[in-house]
Each structure stands twice: as C-alpha cells, then as structure tokens.
Specification:
Blueprint lengths: L1 H10 L3 E2 L10 H9 L3 E2 L4 H8 L1 H10 L7 E2 L6 H11 L3 E5 L8 E4 L2 H19 L4 E5 L5 E9 L5 E13 L2 E7 L6 H17 L4 E9 L5 E7 L6 H8 L3 H9 L16 E8 L1 E2 L4 E2 L2 E2 L2 E3 L8 E5 L6 E2 L6 E9 L2 H14 L1 E3 L5 H8 L2 H4 L7 H5 L11 H22 L13 E5 L8 E9 L4 E6 L2 E6 L8 E6 L2 E10 L3 E6 L2 E6 L3 H7 L13 E3 L4 E6 L6 E2 L4 E7 L2 E6 L4 E6 L6 E2 L4 E5 L2
Helix pairs in contact: 2-3, 5-6, 10-11
C-alpha cells in the first residue's frame, strides 16, 4: 500500500483506481489514500467494511429485507462448533471465509467426515489470501444458478441496476464462463432481484459500481450470497449489453457527478459471454507454470470480440499469483451468435509455453447442455463425472485436420525444394502417421496431395478423394480451407523435421508425418513403455509444501490425505493412491517443489 501511495504522490495523481485485486476491497487502503488527499475510485471505507465482511453483510441484508440463506450468522470458532452448526442446518454445507472472495477459503462439505479437514483448509486459505481467518457456515444449495446484479450508485442517493450476469460455470468455486443476460431469468424475476440489490446498496449509502451476488434455486427462489464492493472481472459482458463503460462511470461518480440515466432507460442489447483463460492443466485444473513463448490472436476480430490480457510473449507464469491470464469476451445479437463468436475466438487464439484451460472451455461451450442454457453450479461435476478428457475429434474433424497437416507438409517442403514447379511433390505418395494429442484416439493413414493450381489441391487419403481450396503460404499462421462447401480456419503453430503443430477445435494437435522410408524404419523401433511407479507419490504441480499430514512408518488407507501443496493461492490435498505404509518422506514443510518431484515413497 505504501508503494502505491508513494507512486501516486510522486506523480501528482489525484485518484487511484484499484482494479479488482485485493486492495480494491481493503478499507485501510481507502483510508490511507484519503488521508493523503487522494481520491479512491470506488465505494467509501465504511461501505467496504460493512459489505466486505460476509458475516456482517448477511445481517445487513436480512435487515434490508433481502432473501438470505439458512446458516450461522457469526464466526465459527472451531471444528466442533462447525459440526454443531452443520448438524443443525443439515448437510451439505458450505464453509466460507468471512473476508474476500474468488473461491478462496471456501469448501463444500457433504458429511461430518469431511468437516474437520475442510474447516482447516478453508481457515488457512482465508488467512493466507485475506489476512483474516474467520469463517462462516451456510446451507449448500445444490443445482442452483449463480446470478449477480451489477449496480451503479452515485453520491446523491441514486442507484440503478445494469441487469444481471450468470456465472454458474465454476471450478473450485471460481468462475470460468460468465454471460449476460441469464437465460434463466424472466423479466419479473430480473426486476425483483434488481430491487433487492438496490435496496441493499442504499442501506449502506453505497456509491460506485458494485455487484450483489445471489443463488437461484430450481424453483426460482433467490438468496443473497455476498456483495462485491469493486469492479468485477466479468464486467465487460455487462458493458456489451448496456453500452456502459463501467470504469468510466466509477471515475465520474468518484468525481462527484450524478448518474445520467434512470432505471427505465437502462438498455439490454444482445448477449455477451466471457471466458476466463487460466494457466492450468484442463485435465485436473492444477496450476501450470512456465514462460509464454507464443501467442496468436485472430487475424480479423471485430467489434464482437474483446481480449483483455495482462500477459505477452516472454511473460513468466509463477506459482505465486492467481492463474488468470486473460479474458476473451464475445457479443452477439442473441445467445446463439455470442456462443458462435466465442467459439471463433477460441479457434483462432493460441497461447503456448504453459498449459491452459482453453480445451475445457471449448468443450463446455460446444456441449448440448450449455447450448440449450441448462446450466447450474453443478455443471462440471454433472457433465464430467470422471474428469475432463481432452477433446476427441469427430471423424469429419479428423479428416479436416489430416488434410491441413498434409497440405502444410506439402507446401512447407515445396518452399524448401528445387521441385517447386512440379505439379505433384516427388516424395509422394506418403505413408503417414498422425497422432492427435487432444483426442483419445490416434489415427494412422496414408495420403497423396496433388496440386492442381496455385490454390487448388486434390487430397487422396484414407478418408477418400477430396477437393481442397486454400491460399495458404508457409509460414502464415491461419490456414483457411474450403472443403466441398464448408469453410475451416486452422492455425499453423510451428513445425520441425518430424511433427507439425496445428490449433483446431480449441486444442493443439501434434501431427507426425513420415515418408515411406521413415515409416518403414520406425516400424522396427520398439516404443519405450511409459513407466509409472506405484510405490512413490510425485508432485502433480509446482508449488510449496504447506503441510505434511503423515510421518515415516505410518500405515495409510486408499484416499487418505497425505500432504497439502500450495500453488497460486490455493491449497491442494494429495491423497494416497492405495493402502500402504509410508517408507520415506523426501520433503519438508515449506519446501518448494516442481511438477514431477518425488515427495514420498511407499513400502513395497
């Protein structure tokens, strides 16, 4: 805080906008700025104190006649107290940090056996993230929708709602996909939720932008969750459907200006979707670290797409910060068009050097359930009960990928060859092996590419004879293909002597292409089996050892908690893969570890 204050003073700044980081909801930061004559672009210190504390905010909400969830409106002192409360309101329950948000310090608990560990993890995470380890407990509402109301309040008592956002697609209680408006809300329900949100804001003399979050159950009853006294990560979707620049409005309000329109004049234009791109393995949502070495944006993205990013080529992604890399935002005349524009963005955006959740987001957006609007906070556990598997291409897409790989191979090698004027590249026919890393099934095929003219080719392969039109030249990024009457755009990422990397359908596909002689030689080479050691526990991510829950010589059962790893402000519990005995622990509490490090050994 002192560094920001000094920067503001030394540059003669009149005001500070805190973004949506931790300081945006820190009332001490507001007091520090204002005591030095600098305006905080946000709500008052008192409003942040009132609404930033979940325990106090629920009491205020209840007094303001806002619907609240059953739970204990006070600090939960210890696991025994937590068990008493949970038994009284009934499992499942959700344990929450009283301060902060973003899914940190939050655990859903389904029975008393999970309670002690959940309480401990939530308490530690809350302390590390917010400097406040107070917890509360509420009834967990299954199959609910997470819907929030964006409000704007000036300093003259005027408050309006900018409609709602739905944020039901979440992992670890953190939002992944947000959209505005919600496909679930009727006009009457939107009005009722907005009325309660405005009532809550007025009860604390709120001024600035704020968000009141609700859960909406299957009977369309809604319940207050919390109020975020700051700009939300997902604010762009509201800006698209209303035409408001929320940051600009925050600055105007902080400057003492009044709202310029009434509630009746707030527009609702089209539909908008935001995808949060995280640095994480989409298979298990564990953090991914490394250096960004390649980034490709769509060639021609229009007013219907927006990219908000804080990274670029060369950026180091470490374990010390939140995994959010950037936000992709789409807009359309309706929900179908907004989804289509987002899929276009995901198809044409690539970031390499780290793993990201792009394949997972692509899978969600193209799922029939999401397309039909049947979302809730259980979406991920319902749709991916055994975890997410990398996108498997359907046969038609495999055909397209195959054509693209052979075409790139042909044109790339033609560019290097003295046989450029030859109609058919002399090394063909090829016997080629293509393995798709983003598909459960690899495929193998042979093919011939025949060049008819500068932009017309004939593909003869395992999928049959296909006429292809493409004006691609090596090493352009986007490969536009016209196959029959269908248009496709794939991304050429890079290549070497044995493989070609192609971006397609939200995934990165490695295609291995061999000449007949190379293929024949490779058939005599035995592939080395991938070995896994059942007698050791390796780190599934890079991070820091927060706690070790066992000691050498302990007997453990399958599923027992062994160790807690902290990475990107989240605590991850490692469990025993089988019944065994701890032979030797290789790390200590506080140790920094890398993905793949051996943490402990089991007796053989």
């Amino acid at each position: 805080m002192d560094s920001i204050l000094n920067a503001a003073l030394s540059t003669g700044s009149e005001a500070v906008h805190p973004g949506y980081g931790f300081l945006s909801e820190n009332y001490k930061f507001v007091d520090l700025l204002e005591s030095n004559g600098i305006v905080f672009i946000g709500p008052s210190s008192k409003a942040i104190q009132f609404m930033g504390d979940k325990i106090q905010s629920k009491l205020i909400a209840r007094n303001a006649k806002v619907n609240t969830i059953a739970g204990f409106l006070g600090e939960v002192s210890d696991p025994i107290h937590a068990l008493d409360i949970s038994n009284e309101i009934g499992f499942p329950v959700i344990i929450k940090a009283s301060s902060g948000g973003g899914g940190k310090g939050m655990r859903i608990t389904y029975d008393q056996h999970q309670l002690k560990e959940s309480f401990s993890l939530a308490k530690t995470e809350a302390q590390n993230s917010f400097g406040d380890n107070r917890l509360l407990i509420e009834k967990f509402i299954p199959n609910s929708r997470h819907i929030e109301i964006q409000i704007l309040s000036d300093k003259f008592g005027n408050t309006i709602s900018l409609n709602e956002r739905e944020c039901s697609i979440q992992r670890r209680n953190q939002k992944i996909i947000e959209e505005a408006p919600s496909s679930y809300l009727s006009k009457d329900l939107r009005s009722l939720m907005s009325t309660q949100a405005i009532s809550l804001a007025k009860s604390v003399n709120y001024s600035s932008a704020g968000t009141v979050e609700f859960l909406v159950d299957e009977s369309q009853m809604f319940y207050f969750l919390e109020m975020n006294t700051r700009l939300q990560v997902e604010h762009p979707v509201t800006e698209y459907i209303t035409g408001f620049d929320i940051v600009k409005e925050m600055i105007r309000i902080a400057n003492g200006e009044s709202l310029t329109i009434s509630q009746a004049e707030v527009p609702l234009q089209g539909w908008s979707i935001e995808s949060r791109i995280y640095a994480e393995d989409p298979i298990n949502f564990l953090p991914s670290i490394g250096t960004i070495n390649q980034e490709i944006l769509p060639d021609n993205y229009s007013q219907y797409l927006r990219f908000d990013t804080g990274v670029s080529i060369g950026s180091e992604i470490t374990i010390h910060y939140d995994p959010l890399l950037l936000k992709l935002i789409s807009h359309g005349r309706n929900r179908e068009e907004a989804i289509s524009n987002m899929i276009y963005a995901l198809d044409h955006y690539v970031i390499m050097g780290i793993k990201t959740n792009i394949p997972f987001i692509y899978s969600v957006l193209t799922s029939p359930r999401f397309i039909s609007g049947q979302t809730n906070t259980n979406f991920i556990s319902d749709e991916y009960p055994d975890g997410f598997k990398e996108n498997q291409l359907v046969e038609k897409d495999m055909h397209v990928l195959s054509i693209c790989a052979f075409l790139i191979f042909y044109i790339r090698n033609s560019a290097y060859s003295t046989f450029l004027l030859s109609n058919t590249f002399p090394y063909l026919p090829y016997h080629n092996e293509s393995k798709l890393f983003s598909s459960k099934d690899s495929f193998e095929q042979s093919a011939i590419i025949e060049r008819i003219s500068d932009t017309h080719f004939t593909y003869h392969g395992s999928f049959g004879r296909t006429e292809v039109t493409s004006n691609w030249n090596y090493p352009q990024g986007t490969v536009n293909l016209l196959i029959a009457e269908d248009k496709y755009a794939l991304l050429f990422l890079n290549s070497n002597h044995e493989s070609i990397s192609i971006g397609f359908r939200g995934g990165i596909h490695e295609c291995y292409i061999k000449t007949p002689d190379q293929y024949l030689c490779s058939s005599y080479i035995k592939k080395r089996p991938q070995e896994s050691d059942p007698f050791s526990l390796c780190a599934p991510m890079s991070g820091r050892v927060h706690d070790i829950l066992v000691k050498n010589g302990d007997t453990v059962i399958k599923g027992a908690s062994l160790m807690i790893i902290e990475a990107m402000k989240m605590h991850n519990v490692l469990i025993s893969p089988n019944n065994s005995k701890i032979r030797f622990i290789h790390v200590e509490i506080g140790a920094s570890i890398m993905d793949g490090d051996c943490l402990l050994e089991f007796d053989q």
